[in-house]
Design brief:
Blueprint: E1 9-16, E2 22-28, E3 36-42, E4 53-56, E5 63-67, E6 73-79, E7 89-95, E8 103-105, E9 111-112, E10 119-127, E11 134-141, E12 150-155, E13 160-165, E14 168-170, E15 176-183, E16 191-195, E17 206-211, E18 214-219, E19 227-234, E20 240-250, E21 255-259, E22 262-263, E23 271-277, E24 281-289, E25 294-303, E26 306-312, E27 325-333, E28 336-344
Parallel strand pairs: 14-20, 22-28
Antiparallel strand pairs: 1-2, 2-3, 3-4, 5-6, 6-7, 7-8, 7-9, 10-11, 11-12, 13-15, 15-18, 16-19, 17-18, 19-20, 21-23, 23-26, 24-25, 24-27, 27-28
Length: 346
């Protein structure tokens, strides 16, 4: 099926993709340090294969593969730790799409052993009978104990939320629909909440389990504290997984409105200035001439969330009338830095 010439290849694994084609993964390299995972695709049920290409740029001694509920492929592969020649850890990588031609390394170690006590290899992942967890079979060889390897097994436990979408929202919305992607979500819909230090947990109005990798829900983020929020998923068996800082709640930028910014002081009607902010913070409103010369500070103090209304009657800081001309009002506050023009006609 494949001829790799003088370069050894080993550990062939085949999966069927969602489009009906087959994808082969194998390990190849001229030396132990050069071993990498390669992949090839077949559209005739494995009779012929396309040209192999590297799937992941990471040292790999053995590889296993499985197709997830969403059609993407996860690879498990054994690898030595730095300074060791024995495969002492099993890592994983996830495909970028259902075509499974490119992968990115997932964080963390799936299974490990110390270099002094043997080696791991031949990872074989299968779906567990509860349909939402995965069981990994692998061999473990300890030359100090036995001369042949034993087959061991490991079972996924806690849910593994990976991301929430959208991951950035404004706190002016009372109902926002979210999708949580990850893995190992129990058949009975898990409990989901958002948390931030110093704030009460934010609970969704409903959680729907789409499958073992996808949850949907709605949150009310109106007036919630800005900043990063941690996402936590609790399965029906009380096992918990978290994605720190998964959601960023932000406040929108403020605004400045002017009424009567064509000021005629003899009419006795001042300029009305309305500043709207969505979070409490320091506000500063200053008037300047076009050449930058300061004219008057209208406000310079902490401001509450909401609306602040001020007026200007055309007088400078000393109480004297300003000359006719164009003046700039600069308003600075939380996520707010606005320059507005005021024209004075005497």
């Amino acid at each position: 099926r494949l001829d790799n010439g003088a370069v050894p290849l080993s550990s062939p694994k085949v999966v069927k993709l969602t489009d009906g084609s087959w994808r082969l993964f194998f390990v190849s390299g001229a030396s132990a340090a050069a071993r990498r995972i390669y992949t090839a695709r077949s559209t005739d049920q494995g009779l012929t294969w396309g040209s192999p290409a590297a799937a992941l740029q990471a040292v790999a001694y053995d590889v296993g593969a499985n197709v997830l509920t969403n059609g993407r492929v996860r690879l498990y592969f054994s690898q030595p730790l730095t300074g060791s020649s024995s495969a002492t850890v099993i890592l994983s990588a996830l495909s970028s799409d259902t075509g499974a031609s490119a992968f990115y390394l997932e964080s963390g170690i799936r299974v490990s052993t110390s270099a002094a006590s043997g080696a791991l290899g031949s990872p074989v992942p299968v779906a567990a009978t509860d349909t939402f967890r995965w069981r990994l079979y692998y061999d473990f060889f300890d030359p100090g104990v036995v001369s042949t390897a034993d087959v061991h097994t490991a079972l996924t436990g806690a849910p593994a939320p990976a991301s929430i979408s959208p991951n950035r929202v404004l706190n002016v919305q009372s109902t926002v629909s979210f999708t949580v992607d990850g893995d190992v979500f129990s058949q009975t819909a898990p409990t989901v909440f958002l948390s931030q230090s110093g704030q009460p947990n934010l609970l969704p109005s409903a959680v729907t389990r789409v499958d073992d990798q996808t949850l949907t829900m709605t949150f009310d983020v109106l007036y919630q504290s800005p900043g990063p929020w941690d996402l936590t998923v609790v399965n029906a068996d009380s096992r918990t997984g978290a994605a720190p800082g998964a959601l960023s709640i932000e406040f929108p930028g403020g605004s400045v409105g002017l009424v009567n910014n064509l000021l005629r002081p003899r009419d006795g009607v001042p300029v009305t200035i309305t500043v709207t902010t969505f979070v409490a913070g320091h506000l500063r409103l200053t008037l300047h001439a076009l050449d930058g010369r300061p004219v008057r500070t209208l406000y310079d103090a902490p401001g509450a969330k909401g609306r602040l209304t001020l007026t200007w009657d055309g007088l400078d800081a000393g109480g004297a009338p300003v000359a006719s001309g164009v003046y700039l009002l600069r308003t600075v506050g939380p996520k707010l830095d606005v320059k507005s023009k005021i024209i004075v006609i005497r």
